[in-house]
Write a structure and sequence with these properties.
Shape: elongated
Low-confidence stretches: none
Distance between the termini: 73 Å
Strand content: under 5%
Length: 128
């Protein structure tokens, strides 16, 4: 008798947290839509944007969606960052290694080029 109650409780928890196949697929679809609309937030730096993006990617992968590879994540990150600084995104995209870039490499490039640009602006060498 206790086994039946435990099984029923487990099924309820399982459905609520992970869901049946259709529920899980619907959650993946909603998260993928959010990923496709991913943009930087005002006042957000590259690291904060990256952290938010990786949280979203982790949720999607956590539901078992394995088709979201690193290359797609890098593309989303660059598309989200381009309104802030199209020059930096263009420089990163022009690198031959972009097709094999990992998210951290892309993040480091964004941070490096952003810092370099800010330094040049402070020194008066760059007109915005």
């Amino acid at each position: 008798m206790n086994v039946d109650v435990a099984k029923q409780n487990w099924d309820t928890l399982h459905l609520a947290h992970e869901g049946a196949g259709k529920v899980r697929r619907a959650k993946i679809d909603l998260l993928m839509a959010k990923l496709n609309r991913f943009v930087t937030v005002d006042g957000e730096g590259p690291q904060e944007m990256f952290d938010r993006l990786m949280t979203l990617v982790g949720k999607i992968r956590g539901y078992g969606y394995n088709e979201l590879d690193d290359h797609k994540v890098v593309k989303v990150m660059l598309e989200a960052y381009s309104p802030r600084n199209v020059t930096i995104v263009t420089l990163i995209r022009d690198k031959k290694s972009l097709s094999t870039s990992h998210q951290m490499t892309c993040l480091e490039e964004c941070r490096h080029l952003t810092c370099k640009e800010k330094k040049q602006m402070r020194e008066g060498n760059l007109v915005s």
